[in-house]
């Protein structure tokens, strides 16, 4: 049921590339696809809406500004072993934005999806 899910919309420039990325690398499953306009993928209680340029979420605003993929907002995925995840994803050719950053709550790194959206992998302090 969609009421049990948190919904986040990411604008992407290639819906199928985004579906492939999230399902192959980050443990999401395809929920529905109307590619090339739209698809949604699910991981646990998170429903990620992948909206391409032809989707309603990608249409120009009344002033003509067009929504763009990428930006600093991101989904935050908790992992048990950050180093192992980084190694696995680097082996698969996934791009990272930065190196591991440590803070009082744990360690994190940002990776980049095919459209330039960020995904934060976070390992809580033990």
Fold blueprint:
Layout: E1 6-11, H1 15-25, E2 29-34, E3 38-43, E4 46-51, E5 74-78, H2 82-91, E6 95-96, E7 101-103, E8 106-112, E9 118-124
Parallel strand pairs: 1-4, 5-9
Antiparallel strand pairs: 2-3, 3-4, 6-8, 7-8, 8-9
Q: Can you offer a commentary on this structure?
A:
The protein has two helices and nine strands. It has 126 residues and is of the alpha+beta class. The relative contact order is 0.20. The model has no long low-confidence stretch (mean pLDDT 93).
Brief digest:
By secondary structure, the protein is α+β, with helices and mostly antiparallel strands. The chain is built from two helices and nine strands.
List segments where confidence is low: pLDDT < 50 over at least 5 consecutive residues. Answer: none
Shape: globular
Structural class: alpha+beta
Biggest β-sheet, characterized?
5 strands, mixed
Oligomer: single chain
Number of helices: 2
- What's the SSE pattern? EHEEEEHEEEE
Helix content: 10-25%
Q: Which terms would index this structure?
A:
126 residues; five-stranded mixed β-sheet; 2 helices; 9 strands; 17% helix; 38% strand
